[in-house]
Amino acid sequence: MAQHKVNYASNGGLPVALTSVDKLLNWGRSNSLWPLTYGLACCAIEMMASGGSRFDFDRLGTIFRASPRQSDLMILAGTLSKKHAEFARRLYDQMPEPKWVISMGSCANTGGMFNTYATVQGVDRIVPVDIYLPGCAPRPETLQYAVMMLQKKIRKESANMKKNKKQDLRLV
Amino acid sequence: MRKYTPKDNVQAKAYYTDRFWVAPRVPRQAVEDEHFKAVVEALGERVKEAYVEINNLVLHIDATQNYAVLETLKDTCGYKICSEISAVDYLAKEGEFEIFYQMLNLDKAKRVRVVCRLKKGLAIESVVPLFKSANFAEREMYDMFGIKANNHPFLKRILMPDDWEGHPLLKTYPLQGDEFASWYEVDKIFGKEYRDIIGPENRDPARIDRYDTKRFSRVGYEVPFDADISSGETKTPIEYSTTFLTDYNTGTKQLDKRK
Known about the structure:
The complex is a heterodimer. Chain A is mostly helical. Chain A has helices spanning about 20-30, 45-50, 80-95, 105-110, 140-155, and strands spanning about 75, 100-105, 130-135. Chain B is α/β, with parallel strands linked by helices. In chain B, about 20% of the residues lie in helices and about 20% in strands. The interface of A and B includes residues 86, 111, 118, 120 and 126 of A.
């Protein structure tokens, strides 16, 4: 389950929570990741299953939003065709900062089996990717694990975005 | 019992070697069916060749008469459904496209394929006034092969983006795309000047480069990280660790301090 670093019991029962701005922000950001309702191919079916009652994404604070203006996570679930790349990038640009991207499945990671003229060979050619999730298609558990890894990554971030360096955010 | 076949060489030898296997032609039969005979008779002189392939009447016609032939098929022979229109690229072999119309008669449960040949660069008459389904099919034919349809109401690319260059189903079009295709999304989103930053497409992420010493090492031929081995590397004998002493009675290991 989610392990955030804010210890509520450390103030001796007083209604005071002593923390740092970084921890407070990261607590909020990591526990209310709102992904964009955006499916590209069969991986989206698994993404929908993750949102359903059996796998229940909501317990991670992950609620799918229907507008990029309200979301801070983009799950690129499926094959991204070159025709659609422009629109995927536009949706990413419409999301407010801070924002994160999960590349879900083989097709999104590398183009997968679609080694053809019409498929983007890895979505990292058009958007910066935080988590690469392998699988074809990844199971809902795997997607939730990816979100948990992303939460872990967010908790390492600093509120001052300029301080965030790639090597500090490394997960393993 | 199953017959014994020698298996000494079973892995070294591929069981299937014919890379460009050409399927045998489906046998062509004479038109004997009553209904098909009536169809050929109704079309008269316009049919250049007629035969039956797997219960499918195939009619070869002149490309200029496609509208008239389909009109006759629809109005007098009952072929009310045009299920597919497309083309086959025979440019390298015969210098022309083969365009086919797959027709279906629901009353008689019969199918007819109307086939015509079209030279490269020529346009064919649109059959959209006869069949609504031809609208998208002819747009797809234009998108994939570059064959234009005269008097089409809205001849525009249907699958590929509007600003795409090339027609992907031509045999001359490379499967992994040409120069334009490989940079399409980068050019469109970021502009041409970002090509250097983003870099070319990695078409084979699992490729193993024999001379790449950054990501790969060869057992028995280990070299330092990022060493240049294009001129060959020397064999290094495998070194086994001698720094631990093992006591097999107690199962413990300890460092060798005798040196």
